[in-house]
């Protein structure tokens, strides 16, 4: 078959007992989780098996858990002699997973970075209330104008996931008001996201500065497989530009819809989600041009493997 793209999910795909069907029998999964646990001094295997959910949802742990899950699935794919994709891309946090799997970033460095990234993002919420909402069925230009009403940039478009789904985040009161404005302007449905941080908003700029400091001492190589980044929808090859993109994506909009469009423009219509859930797969469901596969359990992994290889 033609080429395919690997997509790596971000925060929000975690749950207790995730990847259980892989962890029970596959040593690769157990070993990678043990390795990650050593890097951040936390037993991630025990945590995903037993919880508590509050701790799994603490970004300090959530981000390494999701990264490690994606890396483990990718390693298993390669151990089964799975084909290499033509492109890789990750949604937000997933960009780190893509960079590790493309050979640009060491796994040990990535686990440490995302643990700190999660910690810094969580700290932003101390003594402040934030809200993240998904707006369904409203044009992005209308949503952009609504967000621009807030002159102090307290409401931002966090992610353009598809033509039909746009995420806004920021100050709790202002995001709530903005969502009411979206409803008045014709949004079909609005729901709360399970996040308490102003993800991908201007309010995250202090976190971006900390990520910049961390990345100064990190080696990033040219990816062996092109990685499409979140902020520019570009495949960068040098360390400096990859780092700039990782810094900016903390407070800039995730341009996911454009990433999928870019992949399709290269005549690639098969998308394989490498993660413990099927969130990115579900986003593609309405696109009749795409074959969307996921690896969230053994059954789906094998189905995708047969389809692609």
Q: What would CATH call the class of the largest domain?
A: Alpha Beta
Mean pLDDT: 95
Q: If helices are DSSP runs of H or I spanning 4 or more residues, what is the number of helices? A: 14
- Overall SS class: alpha/beta
The radius of gyration over CA amounts to: 18 Å
Estimate percent helicity.
Answer: 40-55%
Overall geometry comes to globular
Detail the poorly predicted runs: none
Instruction: Tell me the major beta sheet.
Output: 5 strands, parallel
Number of domains: 2
Question: Could you give the count of β-strands?
Answer: 9
Protein name: Malonyl CoA-acyl carrier protein transacylase
Keywords: Acyltransferase, Transferase
EC number: 2.3.1.39
Organism: Buchnera aphidicola
What keyword list fits this structure?
Malonyl CoA-acyl carrier protein transacylase, 14% strand, five-stranded parallel beta sheet, 309 residues, [acyl-carrier-protein] S-malonyltransferase activity, Alpha-Beta Plaits, Malonyl-Coenzyme A Acyl Carrier Protein, domain 2, 9 strands, Malonyl_transacylase_ACP-bd, acyltransferase, 14 helices
Please characterize this protein's 3D structure.
The chain has helices at residues 20-23, 27-40, 44-50, 53-56, 59-79, 94-101, 107-123, 140-148, 172-184, 205-215, 239-248, 256-265, 279-283, 298-308, and strands spanning 5-8, 87-90, 130-136, 155-160, 165-171, 189-192, 227-228, 270-273, 291-294. The protein is α/β, with parallel strands linked by helices. It has 2 domains: 5-124 and 202-308, Malonyl-Coenzyme A Acyl Carrier Protein, domain 2 (3-Layer(aba) Sandwich), CATH 3.40.366.10; 130-192, Alpha-Beta Plaits. A 5-stranded parallel sheet has the order 7-2-1-8-9. The chain has a 4-stranded antiparallel sheet with strand order 4-5-3-6. The protein starts with a strand and ends with a helix. One of its GO terms (molecular function) is [acyl-carrier-protein] S-malonyltransferase activity. It is an enzyme of class 2 (transferase). Pathway: Lipid metabolism; fatty acid biosynthesis. It catalyses: holo-[ACP] + malonyl-CoA = malonyl-[ACP] + CoA.
